[in-house]
Amino acid sequence: MSDAYANENTLVSTESDVYDRGLDAVISLTVLGFALSMVALVDVVPLDASGSALGGFFLALLAVTVGGVGVAGLASWLNVVPVTSQRVRGIGLGLLVTSVGVTVLAYGLGVTLATLLGLVLVFEAAAVAAAGVVSRVGLVDTGPDMSAGLLAGGAFGVIGLAIGAALGGGLVGFQSLLWPVVSLATAGVLAVLAIVPREDLGSTLPAALVVGTLGVVIATSVLGPGWQWNPQTLSGGFTGGAVIPVFVLFSSVLAAWSAAKARAGFGAQGREYGAFLVINLNALLMLAVMATIVVFVTVKGIAYSVHGLSIGAVAAMVLLAPLFVGAVQFARSPAGPDEWHAGARQGLRVLPLAVVGAAGAFLVGVLALGEPVYYAFDYTVLENRVENQLRTAVAVTNETTVGSLLLVLAGFVLFVYFFRKYGTLRNVGTASDRLALVRQAVTMAVLAIAALTFVFLLVGPVPFGITPLWYAGLAVIDLGTVAALALAALPALGVLAGTREASLADSAQDSAPLFTLGVFGGLGLLTVTLFLQPVAQVAPSVGPVNLVTLVAMVATAAMLAAAALVAVAGRSADTRIQRRFLAEELRLALAGAAGFLTLVGLHVAVTGIPQFLLGLSVANAGTLSWPMVQQAYIPLGTAPGGIMPAIVGTVWLVVGATLFAVPLGLGAAVFLTEYAEQGRFTALVEVATNALWSTPSIVFGLFGAVFLIPRIGGDESLLAGMLVLGFMLLPLVLITSREAIKSVPDEYRDASAALGVSRWETIRSVVVPAAMPGVITGVILGVGRIAGETAPLILVLGSTLNATEAADVIGGFRFMAEPPFVANEALLSTSASLPTQVWAVIAAGVSGSPSMGWATAFILLMVVLTFYAVGIVARTYFRRKLNYE
Amino acid sequence: MTDTEPASTASQTTTTTAGETDEEVRAEWTDYRFDGQAKLSVENLNVWYGDDHAIKDVSMDIPENSVTALIGPSGCGKSTFLRCLNRMNDRIKAARIDGSVELDGMEIYDSNANLVELRKRVGMVFQSPNPFPKSIRDNISYGPRKHGDINKGLLARLFGRDDTAEETELVERSLKQAALWDEVSDRLDDNALGLSGGQQQRLCIARALATDPEVILMDEPASALDPIATSKIEDLVTELAEDYTVVIVTHNMQQAARISDQTAVFLTGGELVEYDDTDKIFENPASQRVEDYVTGKFG
Amino acid sequence: MTYQAEIARLLTLVATVLTVLTVTLITIFLFASAYPAFVEHGLGLFLIPEQNGEPRWFFFLETVLPSASTYWNPVDGAYSLIPMIWGTVLVTVIAGSIAGPLGLFGALFIAEVASDGMREVIKPGVEILAGIPSIVYGFIGFQVLNSFIQVKFLDDGASFLIAGLVVGVMALPTVVSVGEDALSSVPGAMSDGSVAMGATEWQTMKSISIPAAFSGISAGVILGLGRAIGETMAVAAIMASGTQFADPLFDIFDANATLTSLIATQYGSASASTIDVLFVAGVMLFVIVAGMSIVSQYIEQQMEAKLKGQQ
Predict the structure, then answer these.
(1) C303: distance to nearest CA of chain B, Å?
(2) Quick check: ipTM above 0.85?
(3) For the whole model, what pTM was predicted?
(4) CATH H-level, domain C82-309: superfamily
């Protein structure tokens, strides 16, 4: 073996010294330069800024750095996120030092940002070259290889070609044949400089040469902010404003790579550090670009889209309830080892809970105050080339009305959540024969009332003109609601009654059958009576409040009381099993409360009559007012109109496409994976669907416009849009469903078959449920994609600017005696949709309203990103579940 | 979803043959030291994977030029422990390691520790053979080439430092040491993936030897092999112990008894229960639980 | 029970047949609709523009293809797709030179460099970004970047450069995701083996991970390019419709329609014969992108087979 360059490294190297700290600072400086060049490219601070304007910017930058490094340092010191790496610490410290340095320079020298950046580059070049020389002379302990390598040499050659071309062009002009010679010569010099000397010189000197040259050119204003080069042949040209940031960006990466190599002592580890730093900088760039896109659209669109947004405090609380439950769930996840470090993480876990709690307290405060709270702001709208200053406010009002839809939504989400959490209470507690009898009776009653509803539905509320039957309906409703109330009250009363003989915990455990009966029986009875009411046209009421609503509200309170009792009981439970039973009861009671609350909303939604109780009210017209989403365009109005028709259109498009694609795709996936023989045919279908999935969407549009529209009839139509989007969604549903079904292990199928279960039974009860999460996730992601699809829609749906009417698909159905029996005007006419509306703003050119466009784009972005976020979260959740179970 | 319960700590009160508690047994063998300097010295090593405490406060000394076996039921943390000895756990980003491991008196968990140098000195062989998808020759010379000890290629020729001769010599020496030379000497440029499982594993051992290590860590090197290949590996391990310090993880107790000089027994929960001469562990262990384990009553 | 099973089998069969029919129908209809234009114009669809009586630039095609001074004029029945093909090529090249290297580095970052916590944030982040609708990109380009380039590059607005940049950013997540999947599917035991021998992580990536995942990464790049070629709305929004040639050919500050944006912008006012020509453009897109998809699928399969064989 050649010993000449075999590294005699020690296992533990010496503590870092001036060389290491200095290079850390240089690396920090390159990172700073990297960030500054991005900022300068988008003109956050102009390149020719100087003096106090520039100093102010650098002070802000310094504050950001101090804040960031300070918080990270504090976290490290507190052992929350311990930072042990000398390099990371060094860079943190370096960032502080260099930002102070550039700030002082900005104030002290009074130069422009461009000059300052040039000076920074010159400094970096000098530092890097010095590091190389120091290493070569042997003043520091490094382990360089014999050469920087052919790859580095080649890269420097290419850089040399470019710089040489620019240099040659500048010196002798592009007309002369000399410039290629200059270019080649520069490339040769740099390549030789990189390859021939030992690695420490070979990877620092050429870099220093390049960075230094660019730095000098920029610092001496040979290439200043005002520089322009506008070649006659091209329709564009180059300015200093674009070229300087690009040069600084590039030089920073080069200097960072070189400095990082030197910092890690060259050799294998030097190359690693250099490469990783460049990869990290690249990731930083990517993140910056992508975050900028989202933030930019948000900033541009949010003012317009929240114009006049206001919500009643109680309604806001209802909205907050699911979030609260989610925060509790987050805070409850296992807390880790019992250490100080874990304490900090626990703190992090309760943070969302605290935030939700604070928001809730704020809403209570608004109610107590008795006055709405406003946040008023101004923004500018550009419409028809006229700038228009608009004043609006976002408000939380002290109204106590809750929209029925909102209540149903929140209540239902909570009900589903708690019900999913709830396992079973079978065989827990003491069940008497009498209780079993009651259970049977309740089941019978529910079925009977459902049957009665059906009868009334068929023959009308006053059948055959016999009024007594109507009274029977009234009686049934009265009895049913009262029975439901009694059932709902059972759990709480049962627990309380039991405490005379046993402890609270034991009594609560004993009452388990009462919980199941109370929740399921009560909810069932009340639901059927609720639906009987409008059908039988009876609405018994107690005072101003409808009987059913009143019972539902009281039942909610009773359920909450039971939940509170169980929660208290849980604190004194002594065995683990008892604690578990009580937790189940708690979830069940909470599910019951949420269910009854949903019924209140449902009742109002069905009857349309607002209900008041104790100062609160539930009405169909809620207190959430969001003009952007809830209104159509208002021609010639003073307030900006909304984009409700576009939202409705997008919703229908998505619904239609999903209805078309999901059954077909899923069915085909089941057939292809479970029934069809795996061979040429399935492989061909797979390749074809994959190819179809990547086919440009505009091609689908072309197909829809020329094939579908003439056959469906009419002109551009919603139905054609649905079908075209459905065609696009179909391959994705097929692909993801097939993947999900394939990923169900064959062991499941074998095990099921070994038990003598038929193939279809196996598919239905084993394969499809196991594959469902994957299918759902795939569908959600696919829907997210087609919701934002524009190109095919312009061909089949046209683009409507400022639609004033939403497509009424449900109301559009007409039934006929002759084929095709069903017609729907709304489906056959065009509609607005979010993406085509944005296109319409673009197509309208200067006469369009960019503000409206930004707001639409913002809402479209939110809709699509929500689909994606839900899909990704669902996938992560299901994957974890699969991996851990 | 159910909340995960922390691992049971009931084992602390288990009584032993001598009527002592585990604590007392541990106090006895913790004092177990060797004549002279330990090659590897582990002090109070703890490992967490996320919230899972995988290694609990393990301390042990490993003597030079001997075979030390780590045995225990699956999931007891013996492989995790092994991976701590050359800092391979650094690659598992959720792992957190606390404590000290010294190689020849040098702390390997020092923040300035040179990982390349450490792994050169402490080689490793994995559970299933993992040769690179390259030729047999390139597999062997992979390490030295990455360390810059062997230079090949255009640049090396330009600089007049082509080490092809050294490489050939190294490949032959390493393959002979791993008892593989006779089987593959005529097809050194074939893809290593064409070898049989046992040959692949010996290639991996040869590959580890090529970087001239002082310690070789083996993580159940024979678990994926047939009996004949296994016995070849076992013979090889015994031979290697003359020049190298070998630490081997195995779940096969007969194997541990056959080839090792010292044995450390890990039981569930990442605790080192007993560590002593192999004979003593298998014939007269101090702990009842270890006796149950080695006699097959518990496992 | 068997009755039910039979119905289920039948239903899934019907779904399969319908799906296959849909796919076939779309394909056949596209080709059938493009056929008349092929017959009518033949090579006229690939007229090379003339300047000063001389065909320009495409000297390597001059012997094969005809040339004329009018190459897109629906009134005269002159339709040449060459300018749009060239526009597509320019946009794709710019997009590829952005998305390729950045995507590779991004994939390396997520698969090998980032810590677990970082990965859990960035990987879904990249996927979400793949979901930003193209019209939103187009709107940003139309509203902001077009004026940006006027200031910074002295251009008169729309340009290939901006369209290519935007499409490159759009294709980036595809390249990153597929590349990252390929890198992650390299068995961990392989890179463990390399690191345990004292190779650095970077050496391991260069010598083990990237060679093993090379085909997967290139599949990602091909897919990304396919998306770039098929991208419509961002291009249509940024570059106004046009049927002019870039002058000179490599002038990235010029603007013209691409194959996709030609369809989007010309369809509304197209006559029957123009629509036929648009179908030719559609078929070309379909064939190119489907071909790229099939190639990348083939490459990925090869890689999977190779890695499986190694275990």
Answers:
(1) 13
(2) yes
(3) 0.81
(4) MetI-like (1.10.3720.10)
